[in-house]
Amino acid sequence: MPEGRGHNVCSITSLTLPISPTRVTPDTLQELDPPQPAHQRHHLLLYKKGVSHTGEKMLFWVLGLLILCVFLWTCKGNLKIADITDKYIFITGCDSGFGNLAAKTFDKKGFHVIAACLTESGSTALKAETSDRLHTVLLDVTNPENVKRTAQWVKDKVGEKGLWGLINNAGVPGVLAPTDWLTLEDYREPVEVNLFGLISVTLNMLPLVKKAQGRVINVSSVGGRLAIVGGGYTPSKYAVEGFNDSLRRDMKAFGVHVSCIEPGLFKTNLADPVKTLEKKLAIWEQLSPDIKRQYGEGYIEKSLDKLKGNTSFVNMDLSLVVECMDHALTSLFPKTHYAAGKDAKIFWIPLSHMPAVLQDFLLLKQKAELANPKAV
C-alpha cells in the first residue's frame, strides 16, 4: 500500500498463532491449581461444614413448621360451638337412611330437631324412638305450597332464634340405566326431588337461617363429581354441586356457612338393588327391538354380575355421613366439602380430578359388554 504523507498507515497481512498439542500431566494440573496452604484448607472445610449445618437447621425448622401447621389445623377443626340445646335444625328425608339416623343423633345431642318425613308411617316410627324435643312434619319437597306452609310453621316454632341448621337430605335415585333406554320423563323425578325440591326448601328456609347466622348442609353425592351411571340422578347431583357453590359465596356476607357432603356408595333404601332391578326390567320390556339386539338379552344379568364384584365399595356404616353433618353443624370452622365413605375418599373423589381418558377407562371397565353395538 502506498504511503501517504502526514498519515500513519498500518497493514496487517496475517496473524499466525502456533498451537502444538500438549500432554496434560498431574504436574501440569498442579501448576494450574497449586495446593492451598494448610490454613486456607482448614477455613474452607469449616465453611463447608457451616453451610451443611445451616441446611440441616433449615430442614429441621421447615419440618417443625409443617408439623405445627398440621397440629393447628387439627385443633381448629375440633373447636365447637356452645349452647346447642337452644338451637333448632331442620332435616328433610327423615323416613329412613341418613336423614333418619341424623334426626335421632342430633336429638340425643340436645338439638331441637324438626324432622321432615314424606310418609305418616315414617313420622310415627321416628317419634317413637326420639325425645319430646323432636318434632316431625309431613313434607313433599316437590310441592311448592307444602314447602311454603312448612316454612311458615317452622318460623312460628323457632321464633326470634331463627334456624341454626338446614340439612337438605331428601333424594331419590330415579331410574339408573343406559341413556338410550330412557325418556325425558325418566329424568324428571330425580331432578324434581334432588334439585328443585332442594332449592325450594332452601329458598323458603333461608331467611330463618340468616337470622341465626347458621348453617346450610346440602347432601350431594360422588355422582355429583363423576357420571357413574346413566339416568337423572347424576345430572341432578351435578346441579346440586353448582347450586351449593353459588349459595356458599352469596351467604358468606351474612355469616351463613354452606357445606356440601358427597357420600360414596352406601347401603340404604335409596340404593335398594331389588328396586333398581325392577325398574330396569320394566324399562327393558318397553325398549325397541333394535336396542334389545344391541345390548343383548343377558345384558341386565351381566350388569348385576359386574356390580357383585364391587361390593367392597359399598359402605355399611351410615354414621360416616352423619359425622360429616355433625362437624358441619357444630364446628366453629366447618369445611366447604365433605367426602363420606372410604370409596369416596380413596377412589371416586380423586378420580374426579383425573383426566377424562383415565376416568373413561376405569368406569367403562365396570360396564357389561354389549352383544352387538353395530346392530343399528
From TrEMBL:
Gene3D superfamilies: NAD(P)-binding Rossmann-like Domain. GO terms for molecular function: all-trans-retinol dehydrogenase (NAD+) activity; androstan-3-alpha,17-beta-diol dehydrogenase (NAD+) activity; androsterone dehydrogenase [NAD(P)+] activity; testosterone dehydrogenase (NAD+) activity. CDD domains: type2_17beta_HSD-like_SDR_c. The keyword Cell membrane does not apply. Keywords: Membrane, Oxidoreductase, Transmembrane, Transmembrane helix. One of its GO terms (biological process) is androgen metabolic process. GO terms for cellular component: endoplasmic reticulum membrane. The chain crosses the membrane at residues 58-74. It holds the Pfam family adh_short. Belongs to the short-chain dehydrogenases/reductases (SDR) family. This is Dehydrogenase/reductase 9. The gene is DHRS9.
